[in-house]
Amino acid sequence: MSLYENTLQQMNEAADIMNLRQDVREILRKPERILQVSIPVKMDNGTTKVFEGYRVQHSTLRGPAKGGIRYHWDVDLDEVKALAAWMTIKCGVVDIPLGGGKGGVICNPKELSQNELERLTRGYTVAISPIIGPELDVPAPDVYTNAQIMSWIADEYSKLHGRNILGVVTGKPVEFGGSKGRDSATAQGGVYVLNKFCDVKGACPVRMRVAIQGFGNAGSHVAKLLHDLGPERIEIVAISDSTGGVTVDGGIDPELAKKVKREHQSVQKYPNGKKITNEELLAFDADVLVLAAFENQITEENADSIRANIILELANGPITPAADKVLAEKGKHVIPDILANAGGVTVSYFELVQNQANYYWDIKLVQERLKTIMEDALLHVYENEKKYGCTMRQAAFISALERIEQNLVFRGRV
Question: In the predicted model, what is the mean pLDDT of residues 357-385?
Answer without folding.
Answer: 98
